[in-house]
Amino acid sequence: MGDVTVRAMTAADWPAVERIHAEGIATRSATFETAAPTWAEFDAGHTADHRLVAVLPRPAGGAPDQVVGWAACSRANSRCVYRGVLEISVYVAAEARGRGVGSALMAALVEQTEAAGVWTLQAGVFPENTGSLALHRRFGFRDVGRRERIGQLDGEWRDVLLLERRSAVVG
C-alpha cells in the first residue's frame, strides 16, 4: 500500500476513526471495549501529541482523503517517573488489513514518540490477535508477561499479553 500516508489526527477525522474502532471492537480480538467511545472520551483518554491517521488519497474532485487506520497513545502512569512511557493503540480498517497500513502507522508512531523523548512504548494484546502481535514484534516489541484471566469480554475470561518496546535512542 505505497500510496498510504500518515498524518496527525484531527477532530474532523473522528467519524472515520470511530468507524474503524467499532470494526476492531466487533472482532472481539482487539479490546475489552464493547462500544466505541465518544470523541470527548477519546480526546480525554489519549495524549494530544501522539494521534495519527493513515490515509489514502481520493481521486481529484474535492473528496477528502480516506482514513484507513489510526494510532494513538495514552499515559501508562501519571507519576512523573513514567513520563517517557506510553501505551499504544493501533487499529486498521477491515478493508485495509494486511496491506502495510499498520506498519506505516507503527513506524510513524515510533519515530514521533522517540523524537519527543519517549523511551518505552507498551501494549496489551489478546493472544488470539496474531496480526497485532506480529506487527508489534516486527517493530521490536518483546513479550514481558501474560495477565491471565485479567478481564471478561462477553462473559468470558480473557488473557492479555503485555508487550513493550524500549527505545534504542532515548534513555
Q: How confident overall, as mean pLDDT?
A: 94
The number of helical segments is: 4
Helix content: 25-40%
Largest sheet: 7 strands, mixed
Radius of gyration using CA atoms only: 16 Å
Tell me, what's the shape? globular
CATH superfamily: Gcn5-related N-acetyltransferase (GNAT)
Walkthrough of the structure:
- It is a single chain.
- The protein is 26% helix and 33% strand.
- By secondary structure, it is α+β, with helices and mostly antiparallel strands.
- The chain has one domain (5-166): Gcn5-related N-acetyltransferase (GNAT) (Aminopeptidase).
- The protein has a seven-stranded mixed sheet.
- It is globular and about 50 Å long.
- It starts with a strand and ends in a 5-residue tail after the last strand.
Summarize this entry quickly.
The chain is α+β, with helices and mostly antiparallel strands and 171 residues long. It has one domain (5-166): Gcn5-related N-acetyltransferase (GNAT) (Aminopeptidase). 26% of the residues lie in helices and 33% in strands.
Write the layout of secondary structure elements.
Layout: E1 5-8, H1 14-27, H2 39-45, E2 51-56, E3 66-75, E4 85-92, H3 101-115, E5 120-125, H4 130-138, E6 142-153, E7 156-166
Parallel strand pairs: 4-5
Antiparallel strand pairs: 1-2, 2-3, 3-4, 5-7, 6-7
